[in-house]
Amino acid sequence: MVKVIIFDLAEVYLKGLLGVEHRIAELLDLDPKTVYESLHVPELTLLFKGRITEDEYWERVIAITGWNLDIQKLKKEVRANFQEIQGTREIIEALRRKYTVVVLSVHAKEWIEYCREQFRLSELFHHEFYSFEYGVCKPDPQAYKHVLDKLNVQPEECVFIDDHERNLIPARQLGIKTIRFNNPDQLKEELKKVLVSLG
Fold first, then answer.
1. What is the DSSP string of 46-105?
2. Burial track 93-129 (b if 16+ CB lie within 10 A, e otherwise)
3. Which residues touch 121 (CB under 8 Å, ≥6 apart)?
4. DSSP string, 7-21
5. Is the pLDDT score of 146 beyond 70?
6. What is the DSSP code (8-state) at residue 175?
7. Among 4, 22, 163, 187, which is disulfide-ready with 158 (CB 3.0 to 4.6 Å)?
């Protein structure tokens, strides 16, 4: 019997880093693909693992690219990109009436501090698990095991929802039911197949 629903955050409940390359490209008159590649330097993983600060990450990006933008402007553009995906919040609110609903996300400390305040994450999720807190990023199996251990539940008692197949594979291998997120309407239909009710 399912007890826990585990949600990814970025591109499932909130728009995340994806898309910010267009905002920055417009400011610099660059190709968005080039900006996207510049954002995904090795330091991004260090940021997600909590090993460097957001300022240190942006300093590295600027040093590599030579972008004529100050850090505060870059930070503002990232936060402006964080917006709710319409329809997902209602699903989560319905589910939390019957299930334990948690978030498991690869994210940066400073970005989550902003999102917690802006989107009241603590009111939405019973528990929050972020890569920067325990130094492990999906799809490392330890990320999923961490959640199972902390909640003291078995894999078959959980459903994990993520927009990337690579993150679903290790969860499935552990015995967790998985759903690949495309949009809220599709998610509702997929949830009906694995749950007694949506809430």
1. HHHTTSS-HHHHHHHHHHHH-----HHHHHHHHHHH--B-TTHHHHHHHHTTTSEEEEEE
2. ebbbeebbbbbbbbbbbbbbebbeeebebeebbeebb
3. 103, 112, 115, 128
4. E--BTTTB--STTHH
5. yes
6. T
7. 4
Domain boundaries, the chain: 4-15+84-194, 20-81
Closest CA relative to residue 116, chosen from 139, 136, 99, 132: 132
Rounded Cα distance, 161 and 165, in Å: 10
In this predicted structure, what is the pLDDT of residue 127? 98
> Cβ–Cβ contacts within 10 Å for residue 3, how many?
14
Binning pLDDT at 50, 70 and 90, where does residue 186 land? very high
Return the CATH number of the domain spanning residue range 4-15+84-194. Answer: 3.40.50.1000
Structure tokens at 84: 């709710």
Nearest to 182 by CA among 102, 99, 80, 88: 88
The whole-angstrom distance between residue 83's C-alpha and the CA centroid of its chain comes to 12
Q: Is 186 helix (H, G, I), strand (E, B) or coil?
A: helix
Position 196 confidence tier, pLDDT thresholds 50, 70, 90: low
% pLDDT > 90, the chain: 97
CB atoms within 10 A of CB 17: 19
Contact call for residues 22 and 16 (beta carbons, < 8 A): no
